[in-house]
Amino acid sequence: MRRFRFLPLAALLLYAFLVPLLWPEPTADFSRALLPPGGDWIAGTDHYGFDLWSRTATGLRTSLFIGLISACAATAIGMIVGLAAAARGGWIDRVLMRGTDAVNSIPHLILSVVIVALFRGSVPALVLAIALTHWPQVARIVRSTVLSVRESEYVAAAYGAGATGRSVLAGHLLPVAAGQAVIAVAMLVPHAVWHESALSFLGLGLQPDQPSLGTLLDQARADIMTGAWWALAVPGAVLLAASLSLLALVPRNVLLGDAHAPARKAAP
């Protein structure tokens, strides 16, 4: 079954990249606004008259792009902080972890809203907001894992054999941190997609002319009151499918809370 866990995500990626090419979005036409699914419109139209099938695919592509870049940025920051704290120890470890705790004590949504509000309607602002609110978790996981490896017997043996701190860092600690980084990206992408959708749903994300899953859901709030259920159901279903397909890539032991398993497997 594990070999098939990539299929849902592959299908969504094909949808996100091929549908806009095969079914290009027509220009806005209010005369065909909120048409129900059927006929020429597989998923109906939104209140601007856009084809919702193609519009949602474009929105998914935008949300995945923002989610992936945000997750990579958050993971890079967290990996640097966690690795530096574990490798150096002492006062550097204490300062970095106190800073991590300070950032982590601020509710994600509040900090994200403050950052996005400064650069409203900007993709870089969304990426920055998500990255700066999600790196502390990565830093703590990387630090904990690297510490367990640094204190292991085989690292002590490497030091006893004359290995330098730099060689231990490159040969033992960095590979473990890199393994944690891959897992962190896989876990953060769906979270980042939901964060982008939430910010756009609140009207703090992209502009309405920049389709994302969040902006489509935001526009559908008024449409659902007129009975246009498809305006909310289609992007909502795609958002849920994207989240579940991305979570399917995360190792089961990590989802169950055993984040140190990859480090144990990496130990000789």
TrEMBL record:
Superkingdom assignment: Bacteria
Family annotation (PROSITE patterns): ABC_TM1 (PS50928)
UniProt keyword annotations, A-Z: Cell membrane, Membrane, Transmembrane, Transmembrane helix, Transport
Record-linked Pfam families: BPD_transp_1
Keyword Transmembrane helix carried by entry: yes
GO BP field: transmembrane transport
Annotated transmembrane regions: 64-87, 108-132, 228-250
Keyword Transmembrane helix part of the UniProt annotation: yes
Domain ABC transmembrane type-1 residue range list: 60-250
Cell location: Cell membrane
Family: Belongs to the binding-protein-dependent transport system permease family.
UniProt-recorded name of the protein: ABC transporter permease
